[in-house]
UniProtKB/TrEMBL annotation:
<keyword id="KW-0813">Transport</keyword>
<dbReference type="InterPro" id="IPR039424">
    <property type="entry name" value="SBP_5"/>
</dbReference>
<protein>
    <submittedName>
        <fullName>Peptide/nickel transport system substrate-binding protein</fullName>
    </submittedName>
</protein>
<dbReference type="GO" id="GO:0042597">
    <property type="term" value="C:periplasmic space"/>
</dbReference>
<dbReference type="GO" id="GO:0043190">
    <property type="term" value="C:ATP-binding cassette (ABC) transporter complex"/>
</dbReference>
<comment type="similarity">
    <text>Belongs to the bacterial solute-binding protein 5 family.</text>
</comment>
<keyword id="KW-0732">Signal</keyword>
<dbReference type="GO" id="GO:1904680">
    <property type="term" value="F:peptide transmembrane transporter activity"/>
</dbReference>
<dbReference type="InterPro" id="IPR030678">
    <property type="entry name" value="Peptide/Ni-bd"/>
</dbReference>
<dbReference type="GO" id="GO:0015833">
    <property type="term" value="P:peptide transport"/>
</dbReference>
<dbReference type="Pfam" id="PF00496">
    <property type="entry name" value="SBP_bac_5"/>
</dbReference>
<dbReference type="InterPro" id="IPR000914">
    <property type="entry name" value="SBP_5_dom"/>
</dbReference>
<feature type="domain" description="Solute-binding protein family 5">
    <location>
        <begin position="70"/>
        <end position="433"/>
    </location>
</feature>
<dbReference type="GO" id="GO:0030313">
    <property type="term" value="C:cell envelope"/>
</dbReference>
<feature type="signal peptide">
    <location>
        <begin position="1"/>
        <end position="21"/>
    </location>
</feature>
Amino acid sequence: MKRLTPALLVLTLAACGAPTAQTVQSTSLTWAIETQPITLNPQLWAQNKVRLLVFNQFDALLSKAEDGTFRPWLAKAWQVSDDGLTYTLDLRDDVTFHDGTKFDAAAVKANLDQFLVPGYNPAVAAIQLKAFDRAEVVSPYRLKIMLKEPDGLFLDFLASPYAGQVSPKSLKSAKDLKFGGPDLVGTGPFILDRYVQGQELHYRRNPAYNWPPAGAAHQGPAHLSEITYRFLAEAAVRVGALTSGQVQVIEGVPATEVNLIKKDPNLALQASLNSGTAYSYYFNTSHAPFDDQRVREAFRQAVDVDAVLKSVYQGTATRAWSIVGKKSPFYDATLENTYGGDVAKANALLDEAGWKQRDAEGFRVKAGRRLTVREVASAPFVRDRRDILAQAIQAQVKQSAGIDFQVKIVDQGTAQKALDENEYELFGNSRGDSDVGAALNLILPAKGAINRTRFADPQVDKWLATASATSDQAERKELYAKVQQAAVREKAIVFPLYVPADQIAAHKSVQGLGFDPSSGTPASAYDVRIGT
């Protein structure tokens, strides 16, 4: 057996070195957030913006540091067999779920087994847990997890929101397991006691909490006695609520308001790039017009990305050149400045592809058919002014190349129907996985759960599978570089636009705000406090 980290030592040092909450004060906070959750069940987590809510209510088995190393959380130590097929977890014995039941090895097994229920979360079962075979309870606080094949990303799964531990009792009794909510019970520092659809979430402090991840800023219960998250989708409304004192914290600060926040002596602004993939347009290669690589390349060349980002985000956005975000250690910088912004080339490519004629509105046509590109976006996933970004690109590709780019923002059901029925040409997406390999495994393989390009390349699939099976980071970097070159440069199935980032603005009296070190998204409210 090989021990991946001196976990017990790290845990002890964290407990000794971090300040302890001497007194538990009664303080409340109101925080305005941009995105309404489509689910509060951590096992069905799908929105990067909801990560902070997940880790208010639930704790994962491990945590992940910014340097990529793993730290103890509900698992205080772990071992991996030399063949990479057996993971042994030693669990904390002092943890209790919000419903009073004990957290133990049987609970972890129940959580893992839940993913095997047909139709529960087929994407995770097929990708993140594709190597999972079974879990065995060795003793009350020791669990063995057996894999069918080595998986270099398995520890990442154990540190993800998907590994947020749910009370087995509530897994069986929850009224709405798909959505979650107050009757889905975790072990986290806060207890969700109220959800008003379309308006707010309310959490109260878990007074028994004393098991934060290694490296937390304090021990014991959260500083805040309660926290309310208000859903304010409009950026101007969020900023207005902050400046008027209706809320003390907001996330999703629009570029148009950054200077206003910075100039206010009573407010503070923080920002962090996200991990995972860049926000990109994925071309549907299964039918016209993007079944022709020349048209895919032409669309990219028709857009002056730098100008668009400057206009929409006023200099606050970081341009992307690869499907992999710049924060990732696997980012391939050799792709920079290799495509885009060449209008003459865009038009030459479209002429070559047979789109030579124009209709009365100036759009290109071929065989009586307009060069139309449809994006159908789900409203819960539209954030960061991505609707405004799409409008800017829409105007550019029409003016520079005669492309009819149509954007529809619809409800989740309508968007999913369009995707399932292949009624789209372009799909916008970013993933916030702390290890980008998890995202690539969903997006690029022929059988990937969200392979919206419908592109299949056995060589790319092989590179991804090999990278997932090894823990050799140098080998993974080499393999992911090949994947990026294929997807971005050689096949042009993706159009990277910008690297997602999160911003938090708050009254200066609010302390302890920060970002999850592995994802770059806002951290939970565990360390947040009012005052110095």
